[in-house]
Task: structure prediction
Amino acid sequence: MSGHEPLVFSGMQPTGNLHLGNYLGAIRNWLKLQEQYRCLYCMVDMHAITVDYDPKQLAQATREVMAAYIASGVDPKRSIVFAQSQVREHAELAWIFNCIARVGWLNRMTQFKDKAGKNAEKMSVGLYTYPVLMAADILLYRGTHVPVGDDQKQHVELARDIAQKFNNDYGVPNFFPVPDPIIQGTATRIMSLRDGKAKMSKSDPSEYSRINLTDDADTIATKFKKAKTDPLPLPESEKELDERPEANNLVSIYAAFTDKGKQAVLDEFKGGQFSTFKGALADLVVSKLSPIAAEMRRLLADPAELDRLMLRGADQARAIAVPVMAEVRRVVGWVT
Ligand code: TRP
Result:
């Protein structure tokens, strides 16, 4: 209806420790989209500096995320894969959007409140306006669809508000599309192996809480063996998993990797002990992750080649971004 070509934009922060949740919850969902749509998949290294970080590790973490995208099946011939900081227009549009977004809008962002806790006064201004940069990421390419986890939905809604206010205030109806979030289902929301109510996270201090993409077979087996469960055997029906978050998580991981429903997994394992199921799960996960880990290692062994690929991605991204920015500059009244 809006007349905008469909374009998918998503991104991930290069903060190290890529894990199963990143793969099943994000990257894997991007693969189908690239068969149908123009897709841009970004390493958001500008977002990565909004909190304390180690500048000596950032470039390598960015390469690792790029390697993980490609090893998982994001095809750089089909999709544009690039580092945010290499396309300067992100910063330029973010500034303009900082002048569109209202303080009241940002004050409502729950992720900032969660991250800042009682220390809001000591957080960087960049962390506060993080969602504004995210809106610029998407709209710089006139992105229409944004696959994200639940926790980013509010940020995509902010991007919608910014797009609409820009179009209105400058009297340029339909200049930016109003992007839709594509929310990944709860089936692919992977939880910590130590606590079925907390998301699997790279910042969890316990290594046993997550399966890293580069974990070897023994580590994966040990982590699943130690994964928290309740004392009951596997239930007959999916419904019974509702009250058993840890059991639910392990069954969900199995289901995701076999592309089956959870009920189909239970039909196979119902009544059995978790010790048996965990063995089968570890074998399955190892068989799926080891080729990805091997491909990541192969790519990371040649950082110069990865850097070349990254620059090419940035060139392709810029080919879309530069003409959009030229129009934006004219619309806002800057000398051109
Ligand atoms: N904030 C997102 C996250 O932490 C990452 C991100 C940055 C993003 N820019 C984006 C996701 C644009 C989608 C579109 O997951």
